Amino acid sequence: MLLSLPLLCASLAAASTLKSQHHQIQKRDDTVCTDLSVSSNNGDRKVAIVLDSSGSMAYNDPYDLRIKAGRALNDFLISSSEASGSQKADLVTVIDFDDAAYLDYPLGDPGKANSSFDNVDATGGTYIASGVNMAIAQLNGGGGGTDKRSAIVVFTDGEVRVSHTTQLISTLR
To answer: 141 vs 98, which has greater pLDDT?
Structure first.
């Protein structure tokens, strides 16, 4: 799956903002992605933006940086009004999850998706697999292939029930 460089930049900007506001940023021992790249911005991508809306986000993301980063990624995508010549329009879906997944914006034009980020709150449990499963269904159901041109980008604090983590790994394989 292709991950977007602007996403990395938005995440780094968010981390820098938090640090400058004297909040503690915890370093995790998780493996770091080192193969993030965008080979071009010619469009024709299908991207699922999946946002954690569980209760822990009220404490772990009090400034809604995950929502701002999701919007920044969406703004990077090529809308139908921006498509011309060699640039093809992208497609995006916006999903949030807590105990269940919620479809905030079905796979469609990124130019019309920004208001869907307003639906993301911070209540409930954390069931990441529900958000990823809905993202897979949206990307596969939107017509056209997904090979080498689709991505699922998940913004989360990573607090999840262990049993759901095992299920998520199984689903992704």
So the answer is: 98
